[in-house]
Design goal:
Largest sheet: 4 strands, mixed
GO molecular function: acyltransferase activity, transferring groups other than amino-acyl groups
Protein name: N-acetyltransferase domain-containing protein
Number of strands: 10
Order of helices and strands: EEHEEEEEEHEE
Domain N-acetyltransferase: 103-161
Number of helices: 2
Oligomer: single chain
Shape: elongated
Helix content: 10-25%
Number of domains: 2
Length: 161
């Protein structure tokens, strides 16, 4: 178990603020994540038209930030020495769909990709920690005062696969 690791940089956005081409790509990735996560009877169909601004419906997504790195060099590389490559980090790792009705936002759907799922538990709740461990969760991180002064939180993640 590590002590307070830093999570990767995330980009959180609203598909309604994107151009149609980019919004369509995000909707396609959300659809793939939806189909991997839920059984066919529970999977929500995300029509491409969702990118259009609707006053009462919002689709929020999270994806890793793009990381620039130097282009490869060497005899087999066709890239220019000064060029940089951008990693393909457009995979959506989470999304939420909510609807606003009469001034209230109602959460319709929330999904987080498998490798990013986890939970937090109070360090002193040993029965809960044992239960989660029996269900396959592993303790990954500790954060002092997570729940308040003197109450340490432990992040537990489920290793699938």
């Amino acid at each position: 178990m590590t002590q307070q690791t830093v999570p990767p940089q995330l980009v959180i956005g609203d598909i309604h603020t994107l151009p149609q081409k980019d919004a369509t790509a995000i909707i396609e990735r959300i659809t793939r994540l939806e189909k991997r996560t839920f059984p066919p009877s529970e999977a929500f169909e995300f029509p491409v038209e969702l990118w259009k601004k609707r006053p009462n419906t919002r689709v929020i997504y999270a994806k890793p930030a793009e990381i620039s790195r130097p282009a490869p060099t060497g005899p087999k590389s066709r890239a220019n020495k000064d060029a940089t490559l951008t990693e393909n980090t457009t995979n959506v790792i989470a999304y939420a769909v909510y609807v606003r009705m009469k001034g209230t936002a109602l959460l319709h759907k929330l999904c987080v990709a498998e490798p990013h799922r986890g939970l937090w538990v109070d360090e002193n709740r040993t029965a809960a920690r044992r239960l989660y461990a029996r269900c396959g969760f592993a303790e990954k991180e500790k954060v002092e005062n997570y729940y308040g002064n003197g109450r340490t939180g432990i992040k537990m993640t489920l290793e699938l696969g």
